[in-house]
Write a structure and sequence with these properties.
18% strand, 293 residues, Rossmann fold, single chain, alpha/beta
């Protein structure tokens, strides 16, 4: 059963919805102070950050949206490229009255945050980029069936599978619980760190009408995303960027990714797997608080 999300005082977070770029986005907020937005990855929702929020809300006004088509945000048939999704977050923060803010993103939420920072560099004060590889900068290479990828347990075979129109929907539909539970566990260093209620919440998102297709659409803009990120190598981000990898998944490659597109990069590697906010919320929060200052 889904747990209630609370702040550092044990008070319930405040939920809201705003229509942004034609899509109604759900979000929740907690705490007070300078704004800090947390962006979830795939296949997750804003529920992913529930353990971290109370560790940050004593210092920041934490804003946690469901990306378009995820969680309790509206299902949509388009706009799942990183440039559009980054713009969604910028306009949501503007609607909430936040002109400048800090950004933390993980997995596809990391590249969403990166696209946000590229489009609105005057609004993003600091960016934390967690456990992700950019389209065009190695993400597809990690999907290849090679001895190195399989041996390092980093074979991202699903990148190509999800990019195929319609076929993944047919094969996964009706099997969401079994499929995504396996996915979460295999990417963790500590599989027990992701409880059943979290998996059920994520599966709820992708089991609703159109939910699975919305999730898969994120993977179907590789060339568009790659072209966008390529422009950033010539005009690098100037704000401080924290690149956080996990020893047992993407690791130090996260820092190398950010070196392509940012000029002020600090690297950090945590001794866990891909699901950092589930596996090590206290360590992650400590690193974020130190960086965000």
């Amino acid at each position: 059963m889904r747990q209630e999300i609370t702040d550092h005082n044990g008070e319930r977070v405040t939920h809201g919805k705003e229509r942004i770029n034609g899509v109604r986005l759900h979000y929740y907020t907690a705490g007070s102070g300078d704004p800090l937005v947390l962006l979830h990855g795939v296949p997750k929702t804003s529920y992913y950050w529930r353990k971290v929020v109370p560790l940050l809300s004593h210092e920041y006004t934490v804003v946690v949206p469901d990306l378009r088509g995820f969680g309790d945000s509206e299902i949509t048939r388009n706009g799942h490229d990183m440039k559009t999704m980054g713009d969604d977050v910028a306009k949501l923060m503007n609607a909430l009255g936040h002109e400048t803010y800090r950004v933390v993103g993980e997995d596809w939420g990391a590249t969403t945050g990166l696209a946000l920072a590229a489009q609105y560099p005057d609004r993003v004060e600091k960016l934390a980029f967690l456990e992700m590889i950019m389209d065009g900068f190695g993400l597809q290479d990690w999907s290849f069936l090679t001895e190195e990828n399989v041996g390092n347990q980093r074979w991202l075979w699903h990148i190509n599978f999800y990019a195929v129109p319609d076929f993944p929907e047919m094969l996964i539909s009706g099997k969401e619980r079994r499929y995504f539970e396996h996915f979460f566990k295999i990417e963790c260093h500590d599989p027990a760190a992701v409880p059943d209620h979290a998996i059920e919440e994520y599966v709820r998102s992708f089991s609703q009408p159109g939910g699975l297709q919305n999730m898969l659409e994120v993977y179907r803009h590789p060339f568009e995303n790659a072209a966008f990120f390529e422009t950033m190598t010539e005009d690098k981000l100037e704000m401080p960027v924290l690149a956080v990898g996990s020893t047992h998944f993407i690791g130090e490659e996260v820092e190398r990714q950010m070196d392509y597109v940012a000029s002020d990069v600090t690297g950090e590697t945590l001794e866990w797997g891909h699901q950092l906010a589930e596996e090590c919320p206290d360590e992650l929060a400590e690193v974020l608080l130190e960086f965000m200052g």
